[in-house]
């Protein structure tokens, strides 16, 4: 399926539910074509259907091109196959949002967890993030028109309560995401070459991961990522940082 339209394209992981779904819906309503990625085929198709319906409801007609790609992002070989398939079937995206992720098990303290749990969380939360950025973002950087936004977490901050113990694989995977974002921004000219890369902490939000009692709605949790995808970028603005509520936070 090729994307021939002149609408900008956003590729979004985790698009089947939670924060990734909210971002996908909002960008569609803003005029983007979107490519959604998740593991569960049925959830992904249901999400695409809901987004089409929302587009039709808001815009009177749904003209957006919504494509879906299933992949288990825990499997590095499958992630590389996914990247090949995205490149073959889609135009270069202007936005790449990585909103997939898993929480580590409750008792996953450094001295209690095990290789399997460490590897599962690192593979999904950090390794696949590297692979997707490494595979998809070079064309965005070459086009001098790219925004990469990665969902991190305040639990991955090196300051404040960030790395204050417990949930070791999760916290450390997100600290890795923050470091990757900063490093890549420096490698690509800190925005001067039209390529921005940022991390966002959505704060505790009501999703399957955040649970029903979280203080924020999924819409609120997704708002900063949506803003990063479309914000104007002027001289003096920053990239390569962690954002929370559209403000830079130390990590
Ligand atoms: N919610 C919060 O309070 C909160 C707070 C801080 C940070 N975050 C971060 O925000 C991001 C989104 O969180 P969320 O609350 O929206 O999570 P969620 O509701 O649990 O959704 C997780 C998403 O990740 C996808 N995913 C998980 N494992 C995958 C795999 N192996 N392969 C492919 N896709 C996979 C899921 O796809 P399937 O539907 O196919 O399983 C789903 O779309 C995550 O990175 C999370 O760490 C969330």
From TrEMBL:
Name of the protein described by the UniProt record: Unannotated protein
The organism of origin for this protein: freshwater metagenome
InterPro entries for this protein: NAD(P)-bd_dom_sf (IPR036291), SDR_fam (IPR002347)
Record-stated family: Belongs to the short-chain dehydrogenases/reductases (SDR) family.
UniProt entry tagged with the keyword Oxidoreductase: yes
Keywords from the UniProt entry: Oxidoreductase
UniProt keyword Cytoplasm, yes or no: no
One Pfam family named in its UniProt record: adh_short
Single GO term (MF): oxidoreductase activity, acting on the CH-OH group of donors, NAD or NADP as acceptor
SUPFAM superfamilies: NAD(P)-binding Rossmann-fold domains (SSF51735)
């Amino acid at each position: 399926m090729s994307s021939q339209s002149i609408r900008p394209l956003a590729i979004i992981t985790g698009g089947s539910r939670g924060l990734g779904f909210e971002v996908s819906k909002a960008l569609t309503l803003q005029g983007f074509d979107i490519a959604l990625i998740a593991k569960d085929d049925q959830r992904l198709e249901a999400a695409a259907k809901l987004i089409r319906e929302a587009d039709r409801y808001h815009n009177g007609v749904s003209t957006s091109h919504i494509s879906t790609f299933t992949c288990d992002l825990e499997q590095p070989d499958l992630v590389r196959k996914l990247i090949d398939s995205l490149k073959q079937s889609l135009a270069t995206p202007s936005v790449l949002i990585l909103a997939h992720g898993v929480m580590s098990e409750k008792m996953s303290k450094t001295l209690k967890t095990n290789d399997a749990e460490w590897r599962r969380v690192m593979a999904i939360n950090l390794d696949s993030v590297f692979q997707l950025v490494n595979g998809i973002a070079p064309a965005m950087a070459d086009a001098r028109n790219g925004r990469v936004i990665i969902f991190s977490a305040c639990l991955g901050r090196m300051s404040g309560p960030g790395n204050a113990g417990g949930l070791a694989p999760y916290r450390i995977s997100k600290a890795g995401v923050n470091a990757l974002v900063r490093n890549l921004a420096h490698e690509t000219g800190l925005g001067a070459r039209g390529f921005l890369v940022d991390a966002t902490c959505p704060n505790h939000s009501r999703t399957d991961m955040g649970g029903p009692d979280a203080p924020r709605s999924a819409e609120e949790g997704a708002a900063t990522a949506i803003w990063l995808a479309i914000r104007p970028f002027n001289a003096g603005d920053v990239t390569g940082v962690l954002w929370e509520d559209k403000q830079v936070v130390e990590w």
